[in-house]
User: What shape does this take?
Amino acid sequence: MSDNEKIVEISMHCRGGQTCITASQLLAEMAFEEGFKDIIAIPIIGAERRGAPIQAFTKVSKSRKIKTYDSVVNPDYIFMFDISLLYIPRIKNSIKEGVTLIVNSPDPIDTSDLPNNIKIFLVDATGICIKRDFMHSSGAILNIPMLGAFGKVTGYYNLKTMEKVIKKEFGEKRLEKNMSVAKDAYESVREM
Amino acid sequence: MTEVQNDFIQKRESIIIKGNVAAAYAAKSARVQVISAYPITPQTTVVEKLSEFVDNGLMPGTQYIKMESEHSVFAAVVGASKAGTRTFTATSGQGIFYAHEMIHWAAGARLPIVVSIASRGPAPPWNIWADFTDVISQRDTGWMNCFCSEHQEIYDEILMSYKVCEDHDILLPKFVSYGGFILSHTSKPVILEDQDLVDKFLPPLPSEEGWPHIWMDPKRPMMFGNLIMPSSFYYEFRLKIHDANMRAKEKIKKVAKEFEKIFGRNYGNGLIQEYEMDNANVGVIIYGDLALQMEQAVEDLRGEGYKVGMVKLRHFRPFPTENLIEAAKKVKLLGVIDRATAFGSQTGGPVSCEVKAALHETKGTATVLPIINGLGGREVTLEQQKDQLLKLVKYNETGELPKDMIHGTLWDGLLEIE
Amino acid sequence: MSESKKWKKINKSVKERPKVQEYRNWKELSPIPISLPIEGNMGITGDWRTFRPIIKEGCNKCGICWIYCPEGVIKRKEDGSFEINLTYCKGCGICAKECPTNNIEMVRESDIKDD
Assistant: This one.
């Protein structure tokens, strides 16, 4: 099934405070802005604290109505906001053949335990945030650079759409800084 | 399409919002005059968003009252409604239980209050996730109660509810409920309707009008809700609450029709919504968020050649007995799926009990198989729902009951750890 | 006139209120019980009285009796003194009990010679 007909499912893993729940919503908004027919952003909400593993999903479709609320078990794309999460057995086992991983890491990752037929894209989101001083009280705000990288990888949206959505959500005040990290990630993401 | 509709559709704005935010926008579109608020998960963002609207001057003239508990929240909306205003609040789970006394009071005083409920499981064990036991436990208070299965439906249903509740021949309060987190915290596109058209559908309340039966005004003193002796009319007033509930069915249908005409979105007949029930052998009755996902399951199994269908129960109170009987005549087997409990009852599920009771005197209706799933937010996947349908198909064909039957009910998706 | 219109009219206008509310069955009832505070709503309660309160000479017009009267039958006159409406006074004696100067006396009805 082509991307046009199916429901594309995206799963995001981060640690509490690394902002993947906001990322799942922003991704949905950007896809919708680009003319996707239906989207849903699903955060898994429990007893979150800083540092705990957090998960969120986004489902997007160019042509179909999305009727499900269940969590994504066979994602097309996986965001890995933190490299340490990759080695949690539950998360590692969820990486199936054919999936595309977007990993926040400056260096290539150890793929010995992962299925062969997967694509891995690397983006040093934390490094970008440190360079651009895009931080909150306990770390880097990773959602914008990760989404920048995803936009480049999939072509679902470009920086212009990102700017539009970020402006709508967060206003003018921090737009420039947001866009600087988005652009850095958009331009620096590379396939491993 | 009329010119008005055409013109209006172009003005539509569709934004991506959480279910809770959709409820807040609905209250804004309905031009509610008094909001009282106390936070409780998973409802909190409804009243947070409303406080933002009020603070930013987007709801001119609306009074926002912060209270110290849910009991007081409901006392405040009862008081405000008595003064003839359109009132709104939101709550969940334990908050509903705490407000229970005032919930009776609102229905007894026949006040058209609309409250959105992000349903959550009752404690203990402590739980904040989707489970309709909280709102269904208010079954006998006289409040109307409906379930939403999509973000857009939350927005639409709140507008429709005011129209039904405020009808001078109905005058009842209503819960608009949806699964906590599943709808409250996920985001989907919602069309926010043009204010002029909403005003046409649901006119703003004239400030000096009041309800026909109660009008709090110092110039014309009256006392209401007073003591009635057993020999006087207490008994009759109770009958009037039931009577209004039953008469509300027609009004709900009428309003759903009118809504569809103006806004173009169909909600069945307002009370129930059938999906693929014609020429089906097996059907399910289901409500809330799982109903939308079940549509997908039915669609998928139809694609595989199974003759399955479903009925989405939109209103639990008033209970659409006649419509369900008609639907139950179309199939041989009907699974009734609850995401709520009625402990110690015939089936353990509140809706399956009622459906059984509704069908038992009519010949030619389906056999009922009660199913319970998803309690306390336990995830019910699309695959699990398809499996439920297949279990029903198998039972219908072979007479072989699913193996997880406990006290006559299928408790689907119980944990089994190896 | 529909039921709701009827109730709206009665509740809105003090003039439209009936002296005594009469319902024959549940259909005629307003959606909730309402008491409309009109004089004599509970009937001629003066009939209930065995002892009659009499305000004696020397009343200091403090108004305590007027506040305490449970039936609201004590009225303040233009000169500031008080008068009891005997059509509705049921003779409970609270005014006499509360009067700080003991200026109200409860007199047995049969001992009263005039009227």
